[in-house]
Amino acid sequence: MNKWMAGLFITLAILLVKPVWGWQNCATSCSRYVQGQCVEHTRHCTEEGTSATPDYGAIAYGKARKSYGTSYKWSSRAKAESVALKKCSAYENNCEIAVWFKNKCGAVVTRSDSQLYHWGLGNTEGAAKSVAMKECTNNNGRKCKVLISQCAGK
Fold first, then answer.
1. pTM score, whole prediction
2. What confidence tens digit (pLDDT) does each residue in 129-141 have?
3. Where are the domains of the chain?
């Protein structure tokens, strides 16, 4: 094989084969809030052609001041819950995880007649809100109101 043919073969191989380093799809999201303002961003990347990692999210809620914190695009439930609690705790001390989700949506509904809250899960934000509202009204809630909804992996 002459040098010209060898060069052509190598060039074609480089163009046709995916590079070892791969192409990446990246997104940036806020990972830390201070007084309602984003102060830290996290970049999440997946290689093109690979399946994405599970996308966990969570909503933390504080009953006393009806404060909340959300998180999404995390690779573990523990991290999603930790971030949501940290965000909520910036506004009050007694936050708890109201709902966590994996490649779904979650919603929290509050009531005007008590400190109780209700949560819902769904494949869309609308579905999650609907489930949470139904839980509230089925439990004799008055003036039920969607406080927050969030999706992960949607």
1. 0.66
2. 999 999 999 999 8
3. 24-151
